[in-house]
Write a structure and sequence with these properties.
- The chain is mainly beta.
- The protein is 0% helix and 54% strand.
- The strands form 2 sheets. Strands 2, 4, 5, 6, 9, 10 and 11 form a 7-stranded mixed beta sheet that branches.
- A hairpin with a 5-residue loop joins strand 5 and strand 6.
- The protein starts with a strand and ends with a strand.
Length: 111
């Protein structure tokens, strides 16, 4: 069972980044996949989530209108597109499945 994030990096304020989360080793489809971030010195914050069976999505108020989450089941991948990035979006972004399975995280730095 594995979740592998990619796509992080350094970006200027106002820019965009697309994160990917590839899942593997799961024998069942699961319920949802979420992106959770942790900024330096702060607690974890749920950013967005998608219910795998229905494509229903949820967005935190702090990112609503700037973020989109979607899934490509053929690639076992969940994406997070973030636009109009702000310095306060700087964080490590984790992909989480069904609350129990976490990826290693990918750093997004906005300057």
């Amino acid at each position: 069972v594995q979740l592998v994030e990619s796509g992080g990096g350094s970006v200027q304020a106002g820019g965009s980044v697309r994160l990917s989360c590839v899942t593997s080793g799961f024998t069942e489809s699961g319920n949802y996949v979420a992106w959770i971030r942790q900024a330096p010195g702060k607690g974890r914050e749920g950013v967005a989530s998608i219910y795998t069976g229905t494509d229903r999505t949820y967005y935190a108020d702090s990112v609503k209108g700037r973020v989109a989450i979607w899934q490509d089941n053929a690639k076992n991948t969940v994406y997070l597109q973030m636009n109009s990035l702000k310095p306060e979006d700087t964080a490590v972004f984790f992909c989480v499945r069904d609350a129990g399975y976490w990826g290693q995280g990918t750093q997004v730095t906005v300057s």
